[in-house]
Amino acid sequence: MITIGITGIIGSGKTTACAALKARGIPVIDLDALAKETLTLAEVHEEIQREFGSGLVADGMIVVEKLKDIVFTDREKLRRLESITHPRVRDELWRQVDEFARAGERAVIIDGPLLFETGLYAKLDRTVVVTADMDMVRERLKARGMDPDDIEKRISNQIPLKEKEEAADYVLFNNGTREDLDRNIEALLERINEWEVRTRCTSTT
What is the DSSP string of 127-158? Predict the structure, then answer.
């Protein structure tokens, strides 16, 4: 089985692309979902409050919007949060990868916005970057109701898209319509099949 990381900056369409691949039968592990599950742990609540102050837990749950306000516009604070959550997320990620491998899956998608920033990409077999024109990215984020200043801060906290494109094994373009994206997804599926066959042949020689 091969592990394929899919990443892209906020607003690039990564989540839509992963949903399309899942609908076509490839299992997807959502790292953001794993991170949210991690935030339900009492031990994590304690560490976060020690690091960022009290008032971030209400009714036994992290107040996510408050936490986002603290970390997503400050790169250093974001890194400190990641040092708390990422080790736990990775443990659960590899547990699920092993589970899919035992179930006989040929490939699994790891959906994560920070695969390059965290270095996780280096532990995966292949990496795909979903990309879009930056003006289009900004328009998509504005349509979500995001403040222009917050958009720029969120973008600046990630490695530039061009650098990710250069480091990736495959670039999935999402500049057009949903139909355009679906065609590009089909092309990616062909490439995934090639990767899987090549890996299988290599492992048996």
Answer: EEEEE--HHHHHHHHHHTT--HHHHHHHHHTS
CB 41 within 8 A of CB 154: no
Side-chain-side CA neighbours of residue 185 (13 Å): 21
Q: Mean per-residue pLDDT for 138-165?
A: 88
With 0-12 / 13-18 / 19 or more C-beta atoms within 10 angstroms meaning exposed / middle / buried, residue 159 is: middle
Indicate yes or no: pTM above 0.70: yes
- pLDDT value at 168 more than 90: yes
Domain ranges for the chain, please list them: 2-40+101-200
* Mean pLDDT computed over 83-91: 94
pLDDT tens per residue across span 19-41: 999 999 999 999 999 999 999 99
Whole-Å CA distances, 152 to 36, 69, 86, 88, 118: 24, 14, 24, 29, 20
Residue 159: closest CA among 168, 150, 148: 168
Whether domain 2-40+101-200 has CATH 3.40.50.300: the reply is: yes
Q: Which of 182, 162, 125 is nearest to 5 (CA)?
A: 125
Query: In angstroms, how far is CA 55 from the centroid of its own chain?
Result: 28
